[in-house]
Design a protein that fits this description.
The chain is of the alpha/beta class and 236 residues long. The chain folds into 2 domains: 137 residues, TPP-binding domain (Rossmann fold); 85 residues, SIR2/SIRT2 'Small Domain' (2-Layer Sandwich). Helix content is 31%, strand content 21%. The strands form 3 sheets. Strands 5-4-1-9-10-11 form a 6-stranded parallel sheet, sandwiched between helices. It has a 3-stranded antiparallel sheet with strand order 7-6-8, covered by helices on one side. It has a two-stranded antiparallel sheet with strand order 2-3. A hairpin with a 2-residue loop joins β2 and β3. The chain starts with a strand and ends with a helix. It binds adenosine-5-diphosphoribose.
Length: 236
């Protein structure tokens, strides 16, 4: 079958080889915090200071010199640049490592938001985030304190790009799911939305809860599996 349209879903596993910790590999804790504590509107309401500090620390880690895109990101960039047809990249990751590997911002659909951005809760306007911000930071649009929040989709909130993603998923020939546990909806059900004729390939260190919905599971680190897989797709 000739491949014309590809949809790629990436998760924390693709950035693991860049030194960014995944969410669930260590007992459901994310950098020693319960995920709900730092990734829910209730957690933010309960302890905004902790949540600001948490994302400031993540941003500072992301901007440290040792964090760079890895082979997995680079190979997906190569695929997007060299493939003759259409490639849609949807990521659950809030880091900007796909962009830093050479993709333009419009090529990366951050369904769970972006660490390098902040949002005014009053006007919903989005701004580039400084290294650090909190309830004492004046909002660039309304000049008030306490309105800015991380531009991150927390549990219970609606992910971004869903309509666009559904449209691409229901009309693709190849679906690649890379480095995601398949535990968080709606991304976990993307595979089930692809058409019968679509080839579905999962790339992960191990089998996941949704592996049985794929035609093929390639087990191994994304940085090792993707160079081979991308080469195959470009030659197909
Ligand atoms: N190569 C490929 N896969 C890997 C690698 C690697 N080098 N390292 C880890 N993995 C796999 C793990 O086996 C696991 O299945 O990546 C997956 C990471 O799973 P999670 O930590 O659950 O991350 P993700 O699936 O992206 O989480 C989804 O949950 O809390 C939310 O919003 C957050 O976007 C996040 C969402």
């Amino acid at each position: 079958m000739k491949i014309e349209k590809i949809v790629i879903l990436t998760g924390a596993g693709i950035s693991a080889e860049s030194g960014i910790k995944t969410f669930r590999d260590a007992d459901g804790l994310w950098e020693n915090h319960a995920i709900e504590e730092v990734a829910s509107p209730e957690g933010f309401k309960r302890n905004p200071k902790l949540v600001y500090e948490f994302y400031n620390a993540r941003r500072s880690q992301l901007n440290s010199p040792e964090v760079k895109p890895n082979k997995g990101h680079q190979e997906l960039t190569r695929l997007i640049n060299e493939f003759h047809g259409e490639v849609t990249l949807i990521t659950q990751n809030i880091d900007d490592l796909h962009e830093r590997s050479g993709l333009s911002t419009k090529d990366v659909w951050h369904m769970h938001g972006e660490l390098q951005k902040m949002r005014c809760q009053k006007t919903q306007r989005i701004f580039n985030a400084p290294n650090s911000f909190d309830e004492e930071t004046e909002c660039p649009c309304c000049q008030e304190l306490g309105n800015l929040r991380p531009h991150i989709v927390w549990f219970g909130e609606m992910p971004f790009y869903l309509d666009e993603a559904f449209e691409k998923l229901t009309d693709c020939d190849l679906f690649l799911s890379i480095g995601t546990s398949g535990l968080v909806y709606p991304a976990a059900q993307f595979v089930a939305m692809t058409p019968q004729t679509c080839r579905r390939i999962e790339v992960n260190l191990n089998e996941t809860q949704v592996s049985n919905q794929f035609d093929e599971c390639r087990v191994g680190p994304a940085g090792v599996v993707l160079p081979i897989l991308v080469e195959e797709v470009l030659k197909a």
